[in-house]
Amino acid sequence: MKRKKIFVAIGILGTILLIGSLFLLKVRSVSCSTTTNVPCPSVIETDLLRLEGMPLLRYAPSLKQIVTRSEVKKYTTRISPLGSLAVTLTLRDPVIAFKASGAEVSTLYTEDGTVVGESTATDLPTIAIVEQVEKENIPFLAQFGYELSRTFSVNTFIVTGTALEVNLSDGRKLFYPLSGDIDVLLGASLLTFSQLNRDEGKLMINGEPTAVKEIDFRFKNPVLR
Q1: Using CA atoms in the order 185, 117, 115, 64, what is the torsion angle rounded to 10 degrees?
Q2: Predicted confidence (pLDDT) at residue 150 exceeds the cutoff of 60
Q3: Where in 60-133 does DSSP place strands (E)?
């Protein structure tokens, strides 16, 4: 019985020493990488440096606060016995960019309209903001612009005060509202073009086939001109 008590005491002492050592051990260095091998966002890398010198049992909440950003989908960590912390980020992919008139920097958005960063140069489909747009319309325009880019293979759009303007490669122009039901608008677009393609892109006006140059989807029924 006495020997058992000694082993228990040693176990308790070992646990206390282990916990104490964890409080004393600190994060010695921090590295950041991504699952796609693109550089970590510079603002995150800078903030991660603040973790150096923190006790191993106290860095996790600060780390979570640093990487909880719109561009980060998830993250994983690995720490060595010597205190080297490696952070790996899974970033959200941007699919479309917004660029205000006269601006040098484009704002990048995901497929669901979430801001994930900025860029001075991008090959993504880009929506040029000619006139100010209400903030609540931005997610819709990002999502809808992305769907239109896939549907019509268009890389540039223009937003005026009342419409999202799309210039097709064949010279025709499309006009869309700045808000609405994306599925309904896409359905109306596909239906309209299926009819035009059947009639070689022409509309009968006063009994004469007339080429359609503009299609306006801002109304209940598309207006063809």
Answers
A1: 150
A2: yes
A3: 72-79, 84-91, 96-100, 106-109, 115-119, 126-129
Do 192 and 215 contact (CB within 8 A), yes or no?
Answer: yes
Asked if residues 108 and 51 have their Cβ atoms less than 8 Å apart, the reply is no
Task: State the first-to-last Cα distance of the chain, in angstroms, to the nearest integer.
Answer: 98
134 and 161 Cβ atoms separated by less than 8 Å: no
Single-letter amino acid code for the residue at 201: G
175 to 160, 167, 181, 215: CA distances (angstroms): 10, 9, 15, 6
The three-state secondary structure class of 123 is: coil
At a CB cut-off of 8 Å and minimum separation 6, what does 51 contact?
27, 30, 59, 62, 63, 66, 85
- Residue 142 CA, chain-centre distance (Å), reads 10
- 18: which 2 tokens? 């282990």
- Say if CB 163 and CB 214 are below 8 A apart: no
Helix boundaries (H) for the chain: 2-24, 42-48, 59-67, 138-152, 182-198
Of 200 and 182, the one with more pLDDT: 182
Spatial distance between the Cα atoms of 96 and 195, rounded to a whole number of angstroms: 29
Check: pTM over 0.90? Answer yes or no: no
Alpha helices (H) in 25-156, listed in sequence order:
42-48, 59-67, 138-152
Confidence class for position 49, pLDDT limits 50, 70, 90: very high
Beta bridge partners of 88: 33, 76
Per-residue pLDDT at 188 exceeds 90: yes
